[in-house]
Design brief:
alpha/beta; Aspartate Aminotransferase, domain 1; 2 domains
């Protein structure tokens, strides 16, 4: 079976990880600082704060933005529940926005229609690592400020997007809060973990404090085990030196293997675009997708899945639409594009483990069977 996901872990991780584990210090320490420095250099953004998960990052994002219980957030239902449950965790209300069926990203026309005076934040997902049109999103944000009299901040869920670029800048450098995932099966893993990228130093410093109970770890203390006054309570969201060490030594492998995802996706787009019953997603030339997953649209999706199973090829929709869950039933709304897309979308293997022989076999299996 050609798998849809596989953990990417460098052999170079083993020795330094063993040294950290037996060092007597495995909490948030020098390795976390070293890893944050590496990430700041990679993203070309000094405002990077590592965390124990991207979910923690999204939960923290709404806190940093000052949203209050009952505030409304516009978001997409086509994503992992890890995108939207942090909205609920902050006591906020969800308002669903439909999707663009040509990209699986948020439909910005529907977003423009649904923004109201009650909207206090927008959460977008870059599906599969393909960047949403951030210029158009910025335009909508500016229009809304004029129309409703207040600034509506944007949170970018970049869980799929390590390596993605919009107009030659990595995601997280376009004036919004952006959160990346380093979970086990992502392009780049630290075992588990994430990073939040902030647009300014003030939010960055506050995030560093809030990730550790609200305690400023840089303050000189008379007793190193006893904190100073906690002015604002926080969370236990910090990364530790174990995860950071994995990240430091796994990073060069990510730089090498990350290219393979894109190469395989480009191969599929080139050869499947003319296959009857198959529709490839739209990709503009002004952005680079990390291609964490490769999504296509197929007629008779269930039949396609059976065919791929017979051929030894793992496929999946990857994420169930969030709006079907009973815990968000009160936010139910009409999403016709998503209704149609969910009948057709499917993801095929495109990761670093997919060889040239594998991908040729996958294309041949689709051409001959479909």
């Amino acid at each position: 079976m050609i798998p849809l996901f596989k953990v990417s872990m460098s052999e170079d991780v083993v020795k330094p990880l063993g040294e950290v584990i037996t060092s007597g210090f495995i909490g948030q320490g020098p390795k976390v600082e070293e890893f944050e420095s590496l990430l700041s250099s990679y993203f070309d953004n000094p405002h990077c704060v590592t965390l124990n998960s991207a979910t923690s990052g999204l939960t923290l994002a709404y806190r940093l933005l000052g949203l209050q219980s009952g505030d409304e957030v516009l978001t997409t239902a086509l994503t992992c529940t890890a995108t939207n449950w942090p909205i609920l965790a902050n006591g906020l209300k969800i308002k669903w926005v439909d999707v663009d069926s040509d990209t699986c990203n948020m439909d910005l026309n529907d977003l423009r229609r649904k923004i109201s005076k009650d909207t206090k934040a927008i959460c977008v997902v870059h599906w599969g690592g393909y960047p949403l049109d951030l210029d158009e999103l910025k335009k909508i944000q500016e229009e809304s400020k004029v129309k409703f009299g207040h600034f509506i901040p944007i949170v970018e869920d970049c869980a799929h997007s390590m390596g993605s670029e919009y107009k030659e800048k990595k995601l997280g450098n376009h004036g919004n809060i952006a959160v990346y995932s380093f979970q086990a099966i992502k392009h780049f893993t630290t075992g588990d973990g994430g990073v939040i990228l902030l647009p300014n130093e003030e939010l960055c410093e506050r995030a560093k404090v809030l990730r550790w109970y609200g305690i400023n770890r840089d303050t000189n203390k008379k007793d190193f085990r006893c904190e100073e006054d906690v002015a604002e309570w926080g969370y236990k969201y910090h990364m530790n030196d174990i995860n950071a060490t994995i990240g430091i030594h796994n990073f060069p492998l990510f730089l090498k293997r990350g290219k393979k995802f894109r190469e395989n996706s480009m191969y599929y787009d080139g050869l499947l675009k003319d296959v009857e019953g198959i529709t490839i997603l739209n990709k503009e030339k002004d952005r680079k997708s990390a291609s964490w997953i490769h999504t296509i649209k197929v007629e008779n999706r269930d039949g396609f899945m059976e065919l791929m199973k017979e051929k030894g090829i793992m496929v999946s929709r990857v994420h169930e639409r969030n709006d079907i869950h009973s815990c968000v039933s009160k936010y139910k709304s009409s999403l016709p594009n998503l209704d149609d897309l969910c009948e057709k979308m499917i993801c095929i293997p495109n990761g670093w483990w997919v060889t040239e022989k594998d991908r040729a076999y996958i294309v041949r299996s689709i051409e001959e069977g479909w």
